[in-house]
Fold:
Amino acid sequence: MVARYGFDGGRSSSMADESGNGHTLRLITGNGGTVSTVRHGAGHALRFPAKCTGKKACPHAALQSPSSANLNPGTRPISYGAKVLLPRGQTSKGQNVVQKGYSATSSQYKLQVDGAAGRASCVLVGARPGIKLVTSSVSVADGTWHAVECRRTARALTVLVDGAVRGNRALVAGLSVANDRPLSIGGKGAYFDNDQFQGTLDDVWVRIG
Structure:
């Protein structure tokens, strides 16, 4: 485990990495956006800004840790995931749950919730051009909690929902993900068109190897 965030310390300007690896998150916001603490089980979760139609005037919020080499899997196996709560009326074109890197300018791994149907999808982008994406066959946008996981092995990328495989695709051998970007949760950043997550997140984690 290279990073884990349970958010049980509540909302603050910085949030500890419970894996012990020091990838502390900081809250970044725009247009008055913020996150709020809500109860989840015996602990807490974080609610992100709700759906907004004001476009550039919409509130934005994300959590970011500094870039670190041990968050880069290279060609090694990686799995990453979160618990998500997203009502049907809060879906959009695309909402980022967790990502490191950008598809257009660097390599990347990402978990997102896509489209009006609210289907979870997993993305890998290596050093060579081409986005590798697998989308869940079921929606997670139903107003109840779901555990979503992306799992990459040497030859496959798999999306799981509540422990069940809901999508799978082949990968070429040697696909490498390594970049100097931060780990971002809930959005790419706090700027316009940040693919804002519009629900509640808990138990975000990344495991490599």
